[in-house]
Specification:
Layout lengths: L7 H6 L9 E4 L2 E4 L5 E5 L2 E2 L11
Antiparallel strand pairs: 1-2, 2-3, 3-4
Length: 57
């Protein structure tokens, strides 16, 4: 699968909905630098729903 095509300006302003920490693009997910939740990116659209996030291992 290809890496998501996300606007750098969008990445600069979005934060984790659970803890408000910054998000980093890792493979096909946005990973929170605070709580570690990993949010999926589907069709180049971040799905920033806590219920959809993958919990840290």
């Amino acid at each position: 699968m290809n890496a998501p095509n996300l606007d750098p300006a969008l990445l600069a302003i979005i934060v984790c909905p659970a803890c408000r920490s910054s998000l980093d693009l890792v493979a096909e997910e946005l990973v929170c630098s605070g709580c570690g939740l990993a949010y999926p990116v589907r069709d180049d659209i971040p799905v920033l729903l806590v219920d959809e996030a993958r919990k840290p291992a």
